Amino acid sequence: MDTAATEARSPGVTPDSTARRAWPRFLVIVLSLAGLVIALQFVQGLQAIVGPVFLGLNLVLIAYPLQAWLIRQGVHRFLGATVTVAVVVVVILVFMALILWSASELVMALPQYGQQFNEIYNSMITWIGSFGVTPDMMLEQLSGLNMSTVVSTATGIVTALLSNVTAILGLLATVVMTVFFLAMDSVAVDRRMALLNTAKYELGTALTAFADGVRRYWVVTTIFGLIVAVLDVAALAIIGVPMIWVWGVLSFLTNYIPNVGFIIGMVPPALLGLVEGGWGAFFAVVAAYSVLNFVIQAVIQPKFTGESVGVIPTVSFLSLLFWAWILGPLGAILALPATLLLKAIMVDADPQSRWINSFIASDLKGMEARDRRARSTTAAGQDDAAVEAPGVSGPTEVTETVPTEAAETVPAEPAGRRRESGEAQEN
User: pLDDT per residue over 386-415, tens digit each?
Assistant: First the structure.
């Protein structure tokens, strides 16, 4: 009785549909967040491996067109991969040489400005004293320091520097080995992508678009980084800031850090301009860097990058903070490529998740064009179906017109006979 009453109250609910009912939404959200937290902690714990490996993947993607061109010219696949690895290693060595040269120049030049920095320090002390804080009060606070504390602090700094050198060498070794193995495995990447497109067409298309977008992103960022560095050098030469080539190299290298890279490259020359030319030179450096980087990176560069960035500036900035927290300093450089990889796998490859692009994608014109093409394709399919429909329904129309013609040619039966025939049919 109860079961029958329940079925009567809910005629659309069956035991099979109840068994297949989805989990509650809040439970799905909680489990998804828990899984995400565990995955992030796992990746963060392996940042010393994940970061260099992903950097090596980006380098292979950048150099792959060279390898493909060599293979098309008749070079053996493994020889082409070896040449690609050699080119990538040379590029890495050039970047490391630039970093070491600029750092050594900076270290040798800083002691020359010790007196000027002391004068700026004294002027700052005087300015702070105007607010009621006297030098004696500051010296009293500093009197608690002893030499043992200073020595231990210096030892800790030296140890940290040595450990960082070891970490950098380990990172370079991991990157080079990753590039080598990925380049060797890439000799059959075309066949593998063909198989992937056959099995998972959406995923294959998304990964191919990711590779093309990341390659374009790195190339365009490098070219515009060189342009910004040259313009910054020219601006610093006009202002009169020394060591302009060192600051040009620093500007070029920090250009790879999205959103905030130019600020990191602006601080040292601005401080040196303050030492050499006072506050006027300081503000001139800040204004020149800000205007040049805004015009080139925010106005001109996006017209060339196109869909390679793929996300709006807000998502780009949040991804910088997120991946720097997950992968450390290397994550600041790899923030956009890592975000694009996640977007390709989780959004672009899933038709049911592509609506997220409406909020995070930067290429609205491309999305609108694809939407118009999809609508036109759907409309064309409907038109084709409408053209085929009369040929299919032709006999039905004939059968519908036959009774009409018969009614016009056959005399009408008397009303009584029609009533009797109707009763006979009902019986």
Answer: 665 555 444 444 444 444 444 444 444 444
